[in-house]
Write a structure and sequence with these properties.
single chain, 167 residues, alpha+beta, Chemotaxis protein chec, 3 helices
Amino acid sequence: MSTSTGISEALAADLAYFKDSTLNIFNVMVGLPIEGGEPTLDACPNPAGVHATSVIGLQSTTNWNMTVSFPLEAGKKIARKLFQLPEDEELSEDETVDAMGELANMIGGGAKASLSESRNEDISLGLPTVVVGENYRVNSPQDSTVVCLPFKCEYCEFGVKVIVVED
């Protein structure tokens, strides 16, 4: 069976853990209220201009890769909130990149904990990688399912892309 979005119920259940983890991390850990939209079977659009994309993998009987992309300037504002710094404090690109990697790690870690419990299996979490630049895209394996979880906050709209490959 599938949902109205064309996503199978089993995948929708897994995706809920990524969505819930993202909402929790931003609303509680970052202190930045966000809203989540309905998942779509599409890649998330890349933000215009210079942006940062964090990538992290989770592995078990299913392999997930998760990306989170922000315009770099919005990423700096989010990093300031995460580090509890004043809005006017300047952050270097390296500090912003570190914060983007930590966000991916926290979101992935929250999803991992929930997935491990619901599936009753061990799931490993990789190390985050962050790419910064313009006009790039993150490609996915051809045999994967790609889902975009859209979010918005006061600084920007952003997407959490979940790439799923079943063993």
